[in-house]
């Protein structure tokens, strides 16, 4: 049964994973003649975006790769990341690239990445260029002495310090802060506001670390209710079957991959649930052989209190993260564990013991494996997301003594 669930999930998600190889985002390119052509751009890593632009015009069916010599630049919609065609020195040689435009002002700031090295370029109103590189160190910074670190930092910011020499504050921040897009954008913007006011207001093109980092982790909290159909097997094969409702709450993380896909993420959730089950069991005779003597046991008005943990791990797909409301589908594997059990009128449900007839109890194996699959709606609320899903999950204990089917309604909030 578990194998069938896993196969169903894999077959269901394969088309989604295949589609995730491209990450279409609405945007436009600017031709060398100054025309704006709208369509969708394949949002890739910073390194690939700096080398070429994969663009598909509106109503077209195929992407085309544009080099920096073929267009002036391209930009994603909603004040998104902006790339322009410019010549800068990379590894000591002048090269035409797509540089990400971080800030436009009296001193403008650009970013480019190649071979895991970050290049930052500051250009003032007279066209003077200062560059900062990060990631091409010839020394191990982790093992360097204090003097070596100071010498490295001095060489790293030398050109930028010369360009921003009017501002003691900018020089101090260059020395103290790590080299990053966010820090340099903040330093240059403050410099422009103080010393380049005649140029006009700065234009800061959106830099969102959440959109540009390779992996983004966000807290996810959920609550809901489960309807559970539960079966427990006795040693003689006579099962106990019951159904019940159980409240559920949980916490976990949602791992997205902005450079790879805005639709796909991996979710991990730790769910806690509890249930009070009252079952009026008829006075069946359960026959056992013990020391050559046949015995029987009757159980009535049985009660069972259970506390359970479920760990869920699997992919999640949102059809369109740019819309206010869109669809979501998710699925994956889960591990179940009974962490607490109290019984009344059911002696054989005491964990780790045997009943009065020497037969093994139901609950001597607490762990179970299973799978889940669900779909629902994804609602965008500012920078957060509310996901309401209807899920089905199946859990089978390792010893095959218990199995359960869960039909759930969950509301999850991603911070």
Count of individual beta strands: 21
Q: How do the helices and strands follow one another from N- to C-terminus? A: HEEHEEEEEEEEHHHHEHEEEEEEEEEE
Total number of helices: 7
Structural class, judged by helices and strands? Answer: alpha+beta
Give a quick rundown of the structure:
This protein is an alpha+beta fold and 415 residues long.
Architecture overview:
The protein has helices at 2-19, 46-49, 146-156, 158-163, 168-176, 181-195, 209-212; strands spanning 24-31, 36-42, 53-57, 64-66, 71-76, 82-90, 93-104, 107-114, 117-124, 129-134, 203-204, 216-232, 240-257, 261-279, 288-290, 293-295, 302-318, 325-344, 367-381, 384-397, 402-414. Mean pLDDT is 77; it is low at 16-20, 282-299, 347-355 and 357-365. The chain is built from 7 helices and 21 strands. The two termini are 35 Å apart. Strands 1, 2, 3, 4, 5, 6, 7, 8, 9, 10 and 11 form an 11-stranded antiparallel beta sheet that branches. It is an alpha+beta fold and 415 residues long. Helix 5 runs antiparallel to helix 6.
């Amino acid at each position: 049964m578990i194998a069938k669930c896993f196969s169903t999930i894999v077959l269901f998600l394969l088309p989604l994973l295949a589609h995730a190889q491209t990450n279409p985002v609405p945007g436009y390119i600017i031709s060398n003649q100054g025309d704006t052509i709208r369509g969708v751009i394949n949002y890739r890593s910073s390194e690939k975006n700096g080398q070429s632009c994969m663009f598909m015009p509106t109503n077209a069916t195929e992407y085309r790769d544009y080099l920096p010599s073929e267009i002036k630049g391209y930009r994603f919609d909603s004040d998104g990341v902006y790339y322009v065609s410019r010549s800068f020195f990379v590894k000591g040689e002048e090269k035409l690239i797509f540089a990400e435009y971080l800030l436009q002002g009296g001193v403008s700031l650009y970013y480019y990445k190649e071979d895991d090295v970050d290049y930052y370029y500051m250009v003032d109103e007279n066209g003077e260029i200062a560059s900062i590189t990060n990631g091409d160190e010839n020394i191990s910074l982790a093992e360097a002495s204090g003097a070596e670190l100071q010498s490295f930092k001095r060489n790293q910011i030398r050109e930028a310090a010369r360009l921003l020499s009017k501002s003691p504050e900018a020089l101090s921040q260059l020395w103290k802060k790590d080299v990053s897009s966010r820090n340099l954008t903040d330093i240059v913007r403050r410099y422009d506001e103080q010393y380049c006011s005649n140029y006009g207001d700065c234009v800061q093109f959106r830099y969102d670390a959440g959109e540009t980092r390779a992996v983004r982790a966000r807290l996810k909290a959920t609550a809901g209710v489960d309807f559970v159909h539960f079966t427990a097997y006795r040693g003689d094969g006579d099962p106990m079957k019951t159904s019940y409702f159980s409240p559920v709450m949980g916490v976990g993380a949602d791992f997205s991959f902005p450079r790879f896909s805005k639709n796909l993420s991996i979710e991990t959730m730790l769910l806690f649930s509890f249930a009070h089950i009252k079952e009026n069991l008829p006075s069946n005779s359960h026959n056992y052989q013990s020391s050559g003597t046949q015995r029987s046991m009757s159980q009535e008005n049985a009660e069972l209190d259970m506390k359970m943990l479920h760990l869920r791990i699997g992919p999640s797909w949102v059809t369109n993260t740019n819309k206010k409301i869109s669809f979501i589908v998710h699925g994956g594997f889960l591990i179940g564990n009974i962490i607490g059990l109290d019984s009344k009128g059911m002696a054989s449900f005491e964990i780790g013991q045997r009943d009065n007839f020497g037969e093994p109890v139901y609950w001597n194996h607490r762990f179970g494996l299973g799978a889940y699959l669900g779909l629902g709606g994804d609602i965008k609320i500012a920078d957060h997301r509310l996901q309401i899903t209807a899920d089905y999950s199946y859990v089978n204990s390792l010893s095959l003594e218990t199995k359960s089917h869960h039909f759930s309604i969950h509301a999850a909030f991603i911070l």
